[in-house]
Design a protein that fits this description.
Elements: H1 2-36, H2 39-70, H3 74-107, H4 116-138, H5 141-170, H6 175-207
Main location: cytoplasm
Subunit structure: Homodimer.
Keywords: Cytoplasm, Phosphate transport, Transport
Length: 216
Amino acid sequence: MRNKFDMQLELLNEQLTHMGELCEVAINRAVNALQEGSMQQAYDVIEADEEIDHIEKDIERLCLRLLLQQQPVARDLRQISAALKMITDMERIGDQASDIAEIILTAGESEAVNVKKIGDMASASARMVRDSVSAYVEKNLELARKVMEADDIVDELFENVKEEVMQMIVAGNNAGKAIDLIMIAKYLERIGDHATNIAEWVEFSITGIHKGQKNV
């Protein structure tokens, strides 16, 4: 019975890793669509969000089977409960990458937009997503805490983007485009927040401690 349970836990890890990879790809494609003026990449992000939604449901069903059929012990229960929380944040990450793509499509931006700090934000937030899921699979508390610390970097980059966009406005560039860029940067900042949430649930799965809650 335990062997079957362990196999299902391994499947859970594989599905979470795949979902994290899809989120990372969606983030990078959304910003590439902006930087390269690629409408096709924007459409690809929206399709990726649909796949993320599907795998969320698959993981949710697997977690419920594990809870109902296997009667997990305390540490296993924390691992499964954390996974259920994590997929909610990953689903929101997919939504926010899709929101960036929608801004690009709605604005009809077919020209490359060069705001370096937005690219830096995308790289940092995508890395946070990847590392938070890796921390869960590897049960790596140190890596989870590094993700939490990295949120400060994304927040600082967000402030830098605002300054860069203000300079664009002062220089007489399109104000509507500037607003779109601020919104895109805000979505990336929120992705960093969701990755931090995932890392906090990883910490809970390992230690039984979650911010704002009593020990479990």
